[in-house]
# Entry
Amino acid sequence: MLTGVKKYYRSSYGKCRSNKKLIGKTVIITGANSGLGKATAIDLALRGARVILACRNLEAANATKEEIIYQTDNENIVVHHVDFESLDSVREFSKKIHATEERVDILVNNAGASQLGNKLTKDGLHIAMQVNHFAPFLLTNLLLDLLKKSAPSRIVNVSSRFHKNARLNLNDLNEAPAVDVITYSNTKLCNLLMSNVLSRRLAGTGVTSNCSHPGFVDTNICKNMSYIEWLGWKILAYLFFRTPKEGAQTTIHLAVSEELENVSGKYFANCIEATPSKQAQDEKLADRVWELSEKAVGLMPDEKHI
Ligand SMILES: NC(=O)c1ccc[n+]([C@@H]2O[C@H](COP(=O)([O-])OP(=O)(O)OC[C@H]3O[C@@H](n4cnc5c(N)ncnc54)[C@H](OP(=O)(O)O)[C@@H]3O)[C@@H](O)[C@H]2O)c1
# Structure
C-alpha cells in the first residue's frame, strides 16, 4: 500500500530529459554541499562542466568535491567560500571569481535556509531575508558582467511554492513577520521578483533568468526546526517527499535544456512552466523590491551591470 502511494507520487515528478553536455562551460552553484545544490552539482559535473561549489562550510564542501569527482570522473570541481550572512563575504567571493574565471555560463542561486529566527546580521539586515534574498541578489548583480560576457548564459533561482504565502512589507523588507513560514515565503517571493526584473533588464543580452520550485524534498532544510517540527517533516519526507536528485530536476532542466535557451522570467515546477502568484508577476512590485534591495546591499555604481 505504502509502496503504491509512493509510486503514485513519483509518477507525477518531472524529469530533465536533456542530454546536453557542458564541456567548456563554467557553472556556479551556491549551497552545493548539501541537498538540492549537491544533486544539481553532480548532474552538471556529469555533463562535463567546470563546477564551482560556493559554500560556507569548507570541510563539507571539500568532502562533496571529492564525492563528485569520485562519482563523475570530472576533476574540474572547485570549492570557494561564501557565507551569505555577510555581504563582505559575497563581495570577496565575487572578487575571487573575477580573478580566477574567464566565464560564468550558469549561475544557480540555490543556497537557502528556513527557521533562522529573527536576528539581524552584522550588515543590519534580517537574517532570513539576507541569506535567501539580499545575498543572492548582490551575488547575481556582481556576476552579471561575466554572465553577459559568456552569453548565452543562464541564471536559475531556486524559489518555492511557498512564495504564494508571502506578505511583504514594502515599508520595511527587514520586518520580521510573527511566523517563520511567512518570513521564508517572503524571501522566496523576492527570488521570483528578482528574476522578473532580471528577465526584463537582460532582454536581448542572451542572459536568461528563471525560477524553479523543486517540490517538497528530503534535505537538511529542516535542520533549524524544533524537534516536533523536524519529526513531522521527516515522517512526511519518508512518505511523500522527493529525494534531492528528484527535486533537482526542474533546476537542472532550467540550467541546461536546449528548448529554454530564449525562455526568461518564468517559473517552473515538475520541469514544466507553472503560474506563480499574482504578486510574483507584478512588475511594479518587482521594480520596487529591486530598488529596496539595491539600497539594502549598498550596491555601488561600479557593481551595477544592468
Ligand atoms: N527541501 C525542500 O523541500 C525545498 C522546497 C522548495 C525550495 N527549496 C529551496 O531549495 C534550496 C536548497 O535547499 P535544500 O532543501 O537543498 O536544503 P539544504 O540541504 O539545507 O541545503 C541548503 C544549502 O544552502 C546553504 N546555506 C545555508 N545558509 C547559508 C549561508 N548563510 N551562506 C551560504 N550557504 C548557506 C547550506 O549550507 P550549510 O550546509 O553550510 O548549512 C546548504 O549547502 C533553498 O533555497 C530552499 O529554499 C527547498
Remarks:
- Residues 127-149 form the longest helix (23 residues).
- The chain has a mean pLDDT of 96.
- Strands lie at 26-30, 50-55, 77-81, 106-109, 153-158, 207-213, 267-269, 272-274.
- The radius of gyration is 18 Å.
